[in-house]
């Protein structure tokens, strides 16, 4: 796992974890790295002080590596559980997601939990209209 300090085009700073640097780039290019404050997908890495391990901590490197592997497994398991819960408790409306979410928000469709696909532009428009949407967490093997 890798943690990045991020900053959106509006200047909001936040941090996020990624399976690796490649995953960050793939998600960013697809418009899936989103500022939690304003919803902007114009997000880049901010300057971050690295954690440097000196020779006096060399024995700790193996323990740190094990902790990272354990953390990675735990995070993956947590994301997989969250996805299963979302899938079990929502209706998949596929590409109709933007229109269905808007109709539910406006009261034209009955209240229900839905999931589906929306482009970054469509998701931004929904957020600007006050429709509460969020990206579904992806597992690293789904990002390729």
Characterize the structure shown.
With 144 residues, this protein is an alpha+beta fold. 40% of the residues lie in helices and 16% in strands. Strands 2-1-3 form a 3-stranded antiparallel β-sheet. It has a two-stranded parallel ribbon with strand order 4-5. The model has no long low-confidence stretch (mean pLDDT 82).
SSE diagram, text form:
Layout: E1 2-8, E2 13-18, H1 21-29, E3 43-45, H2 60-88, E4 91-94, H3 97-106, E5 114-116, H4 120-128
Parallel strand pairs: 4-5
Antiparallel strand pairs: 1-2, 1-3
Question: How would you summarize this macromolecular structure in one to three sentences?
Answer:
This protein is 40% helix and 16% strand. By secondary structure, the protein is α+β, with helices and mostly antiparallel strands. The chain is globular and about 45 Å long.
Head-to-tail CA distance between termini: 16 Å
Determine the strand fraction and express it as a percent band. Answer: 15-25%
Helix content: 25-40%
| Class of secondary structure makeup | alpha+beta
Number of helices: 4
Strand order of the largest sheet: 2-1-3
Largest sheet: 3 strands, antiparallel
- Using DSSP, what is the number of strands? 5
Name the average pLDDT: 82
* Uncertain segments: none
What is the global morphology? globular
